[in-house]
């Protein structure tokens, strides 16, 4: 929230007595920066162009002065507010109703798509003084003749940039043309792109321009952190955050409507009270979902940017950007859902390694760095679960009647001749089967940022792995040096390997380092699990552990190396392709020819080969099946770019 302008009070702004009394009744003490700057100009009837982020109090900035100018005795629409979404329309209408509590005969009506026409038609017959609506439904009522704009004194565009982004530019122009020529216009926007400037030039007359600088934006009141994590580990990181972060209500942002459903289903499977919020839901369902969050029946909403517009729920203490926004300014809108009205808020941003550029763009927009945080460790998660388990045991001992269970356990101890501690240990084991108290470290390990960011570290590795030798034989020697000796997986034994063909080779400029880096980064597989690499003229063959998840296999087909898609396939799959080790030319960097093998070789003891600049230092998370791929963390559907 903006820092209040302590030099001015609401009583000094010139609001009508009824509105000023409502402000006092609501507990408002001092106006925010945008309120103190906008209210006098709007009271005077001036056109206004306001730039302010979500959460700065801009609804009151236009609602209070415009309500002061409303004539409640005139039973016709006098004020039209256009909003990009139905959620925002409902929020603004609710705010108007609260501010006008002392105006007798006042009515405000929100109209939006998704609500039955019959209900809106009956309410329009009551001749409300204020209409708050989305452009499409407002146009429908104007065309039907059920909404007349001839009495409109003021027209407000709230979040105008978002309306233009959603394709409402022509609709807004058409609505302006239906309104009286002599009217007041107030336009509010979080950003001021050229399209908004053009609307202001065409539709506003000698406007007052009010801008709230970045140093007073909501983002400064929110504790922000980012966590670098691969795509296939994001769900693991998120669920650990949910267990370790003490939150009241949480809003998780994703890019697509399908992801809202998929992710909320996965979170519910992990035991969290989560529901999706997206544009495919009808309005009744959306309102019911938001109300459940307000009442504490839900803890988590998984939403898209558009669906969350206008969402203001006091319970939201945390915002998680599961998918980083491609538009940096959208980040401010997202995290503005928390930390509102001076309340504490926390925002966490999950960043894939390839998305660091978007992170830097966000930092430029908000004019501050978003500090890094490591993914929650297994040790911290185990400790939290043990503490919770201990508290539940102690609570049960003090609050429950356990006489029957004392007698039962005593009988078991006597009849089976076992110690009470053994019985207690067995019961504790059974009680934690669904959510183990002892969490393995495998799934997540902090991303080693120094791999990409430290030039000195790269310099130390380059000479050993990147020196050039003359001739094809030298190239083969160099490749053998890098891939010939592999160390077995720690704690998991040797892994069986399967040969895959990838459509990138010498003619594309491919090197083992680039291939290993791409596969490791995109699959979540640690570089040392990648076996031998045979680079030929137009393709390469690479050994990878068997049991590759289908989702990872499909994703690797679209990964690019040296400008070429890998288009990975099993080496023996296509007819006419030679199997690994069969009949290759030594000059193409081959190894000793042993002929086709019946079973892929196991890793042999030897020095660990690094993954190179593009590789990953992360362990691949051997799951319950002991395989090096992180089966628990992989998405169940096709990964999205």
UniProtKB/TrEMBL annotation:
GO cellular component: a single term: cytosol
Primary subcellular site in the record, as a coarse category: cytoplasm
Motif (Q motif): 8-36
Domain Helicase ATP-binding: 39-210
Keywords on record: ATP-binding, Cytoplasm, Helicase, Hydrolase, Nucleotide-binding, RNA-binding, Stress response
Name of the top EC class for this enzyme: hydrolase
Catalytic activity, EC: 3.6.4.13
Domain of life: Bacteria
InterPro entries per UniProt: CsdA_RRM, DbpA/CsdA_RNA-bd_dom, DEAD/DEAH_box_helicase_dom, DEAD/DEAH_RhlB, DEAD_box_RNA_helicases, DeaD_dimer, DEAD_helicase_DeaD, Helicase_ATP-bd
Record PROSITE patterns: DEAD_ATP_HELICASE, HELICASE_ATP_BIND_1, HELICASE_CTER, Q_MOTIF
Domain Helicase C-terminal: 236-382
A biological process term (GO) from this entry: RNA catabolic process
Compartment(s) of residence: Cytoplasm
One MF annotation (Gene Ontology) recorded for this entry: RNA strand annealing activity
Biased composition regions of type Basic and acidic residues, renumbered to the chain: 441-484, 622-633
Family statement: Belongs to the DEAD box helicase family. DeaD/CsdA subfamily.
Known function: DEAD-box RNA helicase involved in various cellular processes at low temperature, including ribosome biogenesis, mRNA degradation and translation initiation.
Protein name: ATP-dependent RNA helicase DeaD
């Amino acid at each position: 929230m903006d820092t209040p302008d302590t030099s001015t009070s609401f009583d000094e702004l010139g609001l009508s007595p009824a509105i000023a009394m409502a402000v006092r009744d609501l507990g408002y003490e001092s106006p925010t920066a945008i309120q103190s700057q906008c209210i006098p100009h709007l009271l005077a009837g001036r056109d206004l162009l306001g730039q302010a982020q979500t959460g700065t109090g801009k609804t009151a900035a236009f609602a209070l002065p415009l309500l002061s100018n409303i004539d409640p005795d005139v039973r016709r629409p006098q004020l039209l507010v256009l909003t990009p979404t139905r959620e925002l329309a409902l929020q603004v209408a609710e705010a108007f109703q609260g501010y006008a509590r002392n105006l007798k005969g006042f009515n405000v009506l929100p109209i939006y798509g998704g609500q039955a026409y019959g209900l809106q038609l009956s309410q329009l017959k009551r001749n409300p003084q204020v209409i708050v609506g989305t452009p499409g439904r407002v146009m429908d009522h104007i065309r039907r003749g059920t909404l007349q704009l001839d009495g409109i004194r003021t027209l407000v565009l709230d979040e105008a940039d978002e309306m233009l982004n959603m394709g409402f530019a022509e609709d807004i122009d058409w609505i302006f043309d239906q309104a009286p020529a002599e009217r007041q216009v107030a336009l509010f926007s979080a950003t001021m792109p050229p399209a908004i400037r053009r609307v202001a030039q065409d539709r506003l007359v000698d406007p007052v321009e009010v801008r709230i600088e970045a140093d007073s934006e909501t983002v400064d009141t929110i504790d922000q952190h980012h966590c670098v994590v691969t795509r296939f580990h994001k769900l693991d990181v998120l669920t650990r955050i949910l267990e370790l972060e003490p939150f009241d209500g949480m809003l998780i942002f994703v890019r697509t409507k399908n992801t809202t459903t998929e992710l909320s289903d996965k979170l519910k499977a992990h035991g969290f009270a989560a529901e999706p919020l997206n544009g495919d839901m009808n309005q009744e369902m959306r309102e019911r979902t938001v109300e459940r969050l307000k009442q504490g029946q839900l803890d988590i909403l998984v939403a898209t940017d558009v669906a969350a517009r206008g969402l203001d729920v006091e319970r939201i203490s945390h915002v998680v950007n599961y998918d980083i926004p491609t538009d940096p300014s959208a980040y401010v809108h997202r995290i503005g859902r928390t930390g509102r009205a001076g309340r504490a808020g926390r925002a966490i941003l999950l960043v894939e390694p390839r998305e660091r550029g978007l992170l830097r763009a966000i930092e430029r927009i908000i004019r501050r760095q978003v500090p890094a945080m490591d993914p929650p460790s297994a040790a911290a998660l185990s400790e939290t679960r043990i503490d919770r388990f201990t508290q539940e045991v102690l609570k049960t001992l003090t609050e429950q009647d356990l006489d029957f269970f004392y007698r039962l356990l005593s009988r078991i101890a006597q009849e089976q001749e076992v110690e009470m501690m053994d019985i207690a240990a067995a019961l504790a084991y059974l009680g934690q089967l669904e959510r183990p108290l002892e969490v393995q470290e495998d799934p997540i390990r902090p991303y080693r940022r120094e791999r990409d960011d430290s030039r000195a570290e790269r310099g130390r590795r380059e000479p050993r792995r990147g020196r050039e030798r003359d001739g094809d034989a030298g190239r083969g020697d160099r490749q053998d040096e890098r891939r010939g000796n592999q160390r077995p997986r720690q704690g998991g034994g040797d892994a069986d390997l399967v040969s895959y063909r990838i459509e990138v080779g010498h003619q594309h400029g491919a090197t083992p380092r680039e291939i290993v880096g791409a596969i490791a980064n995109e699959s979540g597989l640690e570089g040392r699990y990648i076996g031998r690499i045979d680079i030929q003229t137009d393709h390469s063959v690479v050994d990878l552990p068997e049991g590759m998840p289908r989702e990872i296999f499909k994703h690797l087909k679209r990964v690019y190396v040296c400008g070429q898609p890998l288009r990975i396939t099993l080496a023996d799959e296509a007819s006419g392709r030679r199997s690994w080790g069969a009949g290759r030319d030594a000059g193409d960097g081959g190894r000793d020819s042993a002929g086709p093998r019946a079973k892929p070789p196991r890793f042999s003891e030897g020095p660990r080969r690094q993954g190179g600049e593009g590789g990953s230092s992360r362990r691949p998370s051997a799951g319950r099946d002991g395989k090096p791929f992180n089966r628990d963390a992989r998405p169940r559907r096709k990964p999205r770019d």
